[in-house]
Give the backbone structure.
Amino acid sequence: MRQKVNLAKFNAEFEYPYNLRQEDFLLAMQDVYDFFQDVNALLVGRGLHRLDDMLRPAAMSGLISDMLTTSMAKHARSLVENSFFNGHPDLLVNGKYPDNAVKSGTEGIEIKSTRKRGGAVDTHGAREQWMCVFVYQVDATSQPTSERSPMKFTEVYLGYVEIGDFRKNSRGELGTRTATLDRFGLSKLRKQWVYLD
């Protein structure tokens, strides 16, 4: 079953930054749906597990974030991919930085994806930034596995957040330091919803 983005679930009143349009989000989400449909049809046709079932949650979130970044850059009028490896933010204002590459910039949008309802997602540090969070769900329980529903986006948020909106996550000696929006920061982000299904 091919998943389709539900046009009726977009926030018609949302004011997009950087000349973004609702269509940019719709097309990027549909690109991800189509990719998973095509790959899963091939895998299942060979008697293998769906990609959704093979990937660990963190790996899947990383893959989806990267795919959304690439697709958004393809469809957006004013934004391009940050060509600096692991640079921030993921999408840059075209022409703002030399070669559209910056290690740590301010003009653009950071793209994240998560399975956590409400959009709570770890970042590598608290920053003042435009943050876009795509929330998706994966059917990992239906039996038989051939009856599982396709991956589905359920929420999309795009808001401007500040350093004070984050809490630092304590980690052990070997853990990577992260930051997550605190409850006030999450409330602020959730008010800036693009898509709710």
